Amino acid sequence: MTFGVLQFPGSCDERDALAACKRVGDARMVWHEETSLEGIEAVVVPGGFSYGDYLRAGAIARFSPAMEAVREFAGEGGPVLGICNGFQVLCEAGLLPGALLPNEGLRFLCRQVDLEVISTDSAFTRGLEIGDCLSVPVKHMSGRFFAPPGMLDEMEAREQVVLRYAPGQNPNGSSRDIAGVTNEAGNVMGLMPHPEHAVDPLTGSDDGLKLFAAVARAAAHVT
Amino acid sequence: MKVRVLIRPKEGILDPQGKAVERALPALGFDGVRDVRVGRLVELEADDSSHLAELCEKLLANPLIEEYEIQEIS
Q1: Do residue B65 and residue A59 have CB atoms under 8 angstroms apart?
Q2: Phi, psi of A17, rounded to the nearest 5 degrees
Q3: CB contact under 8 A, A59 and B59
Q4: Where would I find the beta strands (DSSP E) of chain A?
Q5: Per residue in A159-171, pLDDT tens?
Q6: Cα A33 to chain center, whole Å?
Q7: Taking CB atoms and an 8 Å limit, are A106 and B13 in contact across chains?
Q8: ipTM of the complex
Q9: Which of A51, A55, A172 to mutate to test the interface with B (most CBs of B within 10 A)?
Q10: Taking the CA of residue A139 as centre, how many other CA atoms within 13 Å lie in the half-sphere pointing to its CB?
Q11: Whole-prediction pTM value?
Q12: Residue A132 confidence (pLDDT)
């Protein structure tokens, strides 16, 4: 199966994302001006500072030609994983609920955090166990997940909250310790931590690889 | 026409930037200042006002977290 990793001007984690995808399948970069995702079975929207994050993080990237293709792809049930800036882009595009606000403490954060798997009812956590702990780094300035309380209740009821920061480890003030969410269908997921930076024990953890492996399995089911 | 759009964090949403400014003021001797909120100002020229609200909703502001105010200057 083949992953497509989006590349915007200002992306900076696309190469790590590509390397992570290649551990579980084939992968190619998709330049932001491309309009077709032909042959691609799963999309990763990587971290960075797309279009300089002008206006708001992710606000401009959502209008790129490649994102139009991603919208169509996601609408057809294709798996899409947004990491960090990619999560912000997917929220701005309306493909995921909520928004990411500047960190509570105003500082750029860069640290290893523990994530708790809350739902396995998504293309990216299927095969994991509820309560599994994943050690993955975060590095962001605007990672405070926000949604109005009513929307949060609905998301929790529909099992759209898939990852939470482990108790006491919420680094940015996210509502209800939320680290990762999905759309209603479960095929689009976004998270602030960086699973693509945790794919080899050499760098402290390979827990992030589990999400890519699950994506690969999900893509195999689609085709 | 010249237009000014003011964009603010919605009421009730924590604004850490405003808090940081608020905390810095007493250090400079400015006491008695409260409830600092930091937003964004966008100035633009438009042929007419027909699409202003729409472009605010779709791009300039994120209605989930921000409110906007359109001021027609001239």
Answers
A1: no
A2: -65, -40
A3: yes
A4: 2-7, 26-31, 42-45, 80-83, 99-101, 109-117, 133-140, 144-146, 161-165, 178-182, 188-191
A5: 999 999 999 999 9
A6: 21
A7: no
A8: 0.87
A9: A55
A10: 14
A11: 0.94
A12: 97
